[in-house]
Amino acid sequence: MTAWTTDELERIAAADELDVAPRRGDGTLREPTTIWVVRDGDDLFVRSYRGDGGAWYRTARASHTGRVSAGGVTKDVTFAEEADPAVNDRLDAAYHGKYGRYSDYVAPMVAAPARASTLRLLPR
Questions:
Q1: In terms of domain of life, where is this protein from (predicted)?
Q2: Are 56 and 49 in contact (CB under 8 A)?
Q3: Residue 1, pLDDT score
Q4: Which of 16, 32, 90, 122 is the most exposed place for a label (fewest CB within 10 A)?
């Protein structure tokens, strides 16, 4: 498995927003959707603001592959589902810490529907 480099982790984690473009069933990339990204150790995570109602999220779950861009880094990724409740608790804290100034938007990102849509980004 490929790992993120320290530079990639730092640059993506420092970016306020990430563009995510999951692959469709025909192999083409969806138009990028701008979302938030947080770091936990050597891993990067995203969630769907709309939970499983997010179109980008449904495509990512179906294909498990796509491309992300943030902080000057563009990388093909695998979207891995994250079921560990301890990770979700840490991610909630990361969302509050990084995006707390957007309090109206953080609350849905740490609510049950968004938590259930947590995906780990694995570089390909």
A1: Bacteria
A2: no
A3: 58
A4: 16
The one-letter code for the residue type at 54 is G
Length of the chain: 124
pLDDT in the model for residue 31: 97
Cα–Cα nearest to 45, from 28, 23, 20, 24: 20
CA distance 1 to 42: 13
Q: Are 66 and 21 in contact (CB under 8 A)?
A: yes
Structural domains of the chain ordered from first start:
6-123 (2.30.110.10)
- For residue range 92-107, what is the model confidence (pLDDT) as tens digits? 999 999 999 998 999 9
49-55, long-range: CB within 8 Å, 24+ apart, which pairs? 49/105, 49/108, 49/109, 49/114, 50/113, 50/114, 51/112, 51/113, 51/114, 51/116, 51/117, 52/113, 52/116, 52/117, 53/113, 54/117, 55/30
**Could you identify the residue written with the tokens 């409740």?**
85
Tokens at residue 53, please?
Answer: 């109602």
- For residue 66, pLDDT beyond 70: yes
